[in-house]
Amino acid sequence: xxxxDSASPPESWxxxxxxxxxxxxxxxxxxxxxxxxxxxxxxxTASGMTVCDLGAGTGAVGLAVALACPEARVTLVERDPEAxxxxxRNVEENGLADRVRVIEADVTAPGRERRQAGxxxxxxxxxxxxxxxxxPGRTRSSPVSAKAAAHGxxxxxxxxxxxxxxxxxxxxGGRLVLIHRADAxxxxxxxxxxxxxxxxxxxxxxxADAPAIRVLVSGxxxxxxxxxxxxxxxxxxxxGRFTPAVEAMHRGAAP
Length: 255
Description:
Keywords: Methyltransferase, S-adenosyl-L-methionine, Transferase
Number of helices: 9
Low-confidence stretches: 1-7
GO molecular function, one term: methyltransferase activity
CATH topology: Rossmann fold
Strand content: 15-25%
CATH class: Alpha Beta
Order of helices and strands: EEHHEHEHEHEHHEHEEEEH
InterPro entries: SAM-dependent_MTases_sf (IPR029063), Small_mtfrase_dom (IPR007848), tRNA_Adenine-N(6)_MTase (IPR050210)
Region (Disordered): 1-30
Mean pLDDT: 88
Shape: globular
CATH superfamily: Vaccinia Virus protein VP39
Protein name: Methyltransferase
């Protein structure tokens, strides 16, 4: 993919408050998952926090949080050089360079390599992440290399390594929120066990009468609070349109 120019104009996000450059259609692009993840950062609780968008792509989640939380300082972490380049441009074009930085790093790299890149232990108050969805061999890879890398891990045990890095970055008492496939919930809970407590799972259903397709999982590092399964978030009403709550999340208007 060539660097963004006038042929790849920015798209309107959050009701026009965020200008977001993304790769061409067919590549990995931010959508509803990103909107739901960004909405999990309540502006009241995230104000003044150090926030990390881990696996940020072009920065949609972290930039949305930076807009909603004017006192938050945000780090976007992305390993793909082209996506990281778009993220840097998005930071500049949205006037957020004073509070948002981009770190180009592999989330699953050894600790020493991550620290050299600037990912320091116990440095994050709120970490938001949309990990790759598939382990090797679990699905047919996209012919678009960047999309394949965004959707799947290259080595077995990738989710465990990813969430281990999350636990390294989040300070004790800090919060993690992730979004994943619904059928990956057991693997997510296994990887979080002993690292995060007070786990709260929100099923995400396409319709009220349909099984969940995503889960939002929230936890606090070191907490001993009990597990909670909370009411589902329903994406679409009977008319096929987004529900009012989800539509508001797309506009950045509701946590």
